[in-house]
Design brief:
- 37% of the residues lie in helices and 23% in strands.
- α1 packs antiparallel against α2.
- The chain is globular and about 30 Å long.
- The two termini are 21 Å apart.
Length: 97
């Protein structure tokens, strides 16, 4: 099951600060056509802010416009990330693990 639709926000630093928790979980980055990346981390807000600020071409080449997340305990993050990555056919998820 993918991320809940009501849990989607703009992929900007201000939006990440306003909506993403500094908690353990999984997150997805997307544009209007596709899921770009699905990741897992101990601090969703910090990791998303690093993606927003990243100047490398990896995720940016897909012109991401939004993100979604769900809280997940550390021991189940990687498994949930893998399920979501396959289910959503994320473009970059394998590149950045």
């Amino acid at each position: 099951m993918p991320f809940p639709q009501e849990n989607s926000f703009a992929f900007t630093a201000a939006s990440v600060r306003a909506h993403a928790p500094g908690s353990s979980g999984v997150y997805g980055i997307f544009n209007a056509q596709q899921w770009v990346y699905v990741g897992a981390c101990g601090d969703i807000q910090a990791r998303l802010l690093s993606h927003v600020a990243d100047t490398e071409a990896g995720i940016k080449r897909y012109s991401p416009t939004g993100f979604s997340f769900e809280l997940q305990a550390e021991d189940s993050r990687a498994g949930r990330r893998d399920v979501l990555s396959r289910e959503l056919a994320a473009q970059c998820s394998e590149l950045f693990r």
